Amino acid sequence: MDFKTLLSNRRSIRDFQDRDVPLPVIQEILEDTCLAPTASNGQPCRFIIIRNREVMKRISDESKGNLLADIAGNPDAPIKIYEAALRDDAFNVFYNAPCLILIIGSQEVLSLEIDCALTAAYLMFSAASRGLGTCWVALGARIRNPEILREIGIPKGCAIVAPVILGYPKAVPPASARHMPDIVREI
Amino acid sequence: MDFKTLLSNRRSIRDFQDRDVPLPVIQEILEDTCLAPTASNGQPCRFIIIRNREVMKRISDESKGNLLADIAGNPDAPIKIYEAALRDDAFNVFYNAPCLILIIGSQEVLSLEIDCALTAAYLMFSAASRGLGTCWVALGARIRNPEILREIGIPKGCAIVAPVILGYPKAVPPASARHMPDIVREI
Q: What number is the ipTM of this complex?
């Protein structure tokens, strides 16, 4: 798959075939992500692979509840645009995807957000190159319940930076509207 | 260029041919970056293109001085591992690359670091697909001098997230050592 095709295939996918993603495929994708650049080659990213839909549903419900509580505490929060969706019991933030990868890492790493985002980009491109679809679902990261944190295995001191769903897309939609590059100055 | 080749060609490049990068090539690369996913499709990334080596040298000197001052103020700063290099007058943090792209954005955007990192990953892959090399040079972002900020056109309230050098590599080195994916749990 050449780069232009890869670019047009890397879309945010929110509608998946009812088809599991085999573990060896996930392993290959995660191996590709290890080639991502990280600050001082620190490689701080760790992964949790979730293919159990009941666990994903529990994370979705937990995150929705916490986001709604955050909105109640701060009506100016940018997340407020999602309030109606979050109140909808039928809405699963993971769009019923067959797999969720959590990219996590120690909060002591200053570059953690950037390192995990670069790693997530590798994950998304690697998945697209194999005909799989992904979507970074920021709404799925607000987990506070210690029982759920224990169940999914988040080590102490670690934060979830990138919750990325993974599966075989029903279709690859065209890109949503984009503006041209905003070039402030050319020197 | 297929994905495996792209993966092996996206290396951090620190040694460049003495050959300018034409503006239309930079424009094409920046257009590709606009396809990067950003939180709620907010597209907050803006770009400054610098091909003037004197300006790049001024930014390098300014950033080195500020980093050394930061180390003096906090000897435990992780940046201390670079102290010897920063004290070397001959060391240009941009490795004498012919071009520097600053990815910047408003500090009011909560997801700015993540959005810019995803955009930088697109920039690096797009460049690699065209035979160009890049390196995210975090050492080049510590600019405080208002005159330099004005000269390079950083708008008020904006932060430099990703300073990425760009040029034609003398060679594409093999990947630096990587560990296998650190899978904490599989559910």
A: 0.95
